[in-house]
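Minutes, structural biology subgroup

Action item carried over from last meeting: produce the structure token record for Gustatory receptor (Diploptera punctata). EB confirmed the sequence was re-checked against the source entry. Recorded below for completeness.
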Amino acid sequence: KVEFKLLSVRTLYSLLVQSIMVTITFLTMQERIYKIANVTMEFGDLVLEVGCSVCISFAFLVPITHLPESPKKAHFFSNWIHLQNKFERVTGKQLVINLQKVALRRLLVSFVIGLIYTGLLFALQIGYKWWQGIVFFYNGFMSFLMADFWVLTTKALIIVQENLEASLTQVLIKALIY
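Output recorded by EB:
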């Protein structure tokens, strides 16, 4: 069973990482906004600066949108386990979702895209410091992970639906034969 505990080591660790990332993101955005306001730039460079600032603003949304939802997410994952147990009780078969390989592949792809995104930023923009690359990588990677979470959830729902359909079809076929 998955539980959310506000004063657990994992939650406090997450809060620490989020606090550090929000602080570094704030400092980076402050520096970049100062640059936009005080340095004469070509239009293309200005668009890139503003686009990059918008991309890293994700760090401010995570604590506001995801931390309050953590208990619901823990309940959501516990319900998957509950669903698998009920499915086995009713059908006599295990409900195997088995998305570990897909999840690992998506994680690796998101990681590589995050690295490419950060590399392109340093190639196209001038004046970024190495620690600001961490901000861009983190925010890009987290954005991809949020999308991956929903893709994996959708795949799991499809697997459950297909298993329920197959089990129901077998029961109906047996009922019709008798």
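Discussion: The CA atoms of residues 36 and 46 lie 7 Å apart.
Next step: EB to file the record with the rest of the batch.
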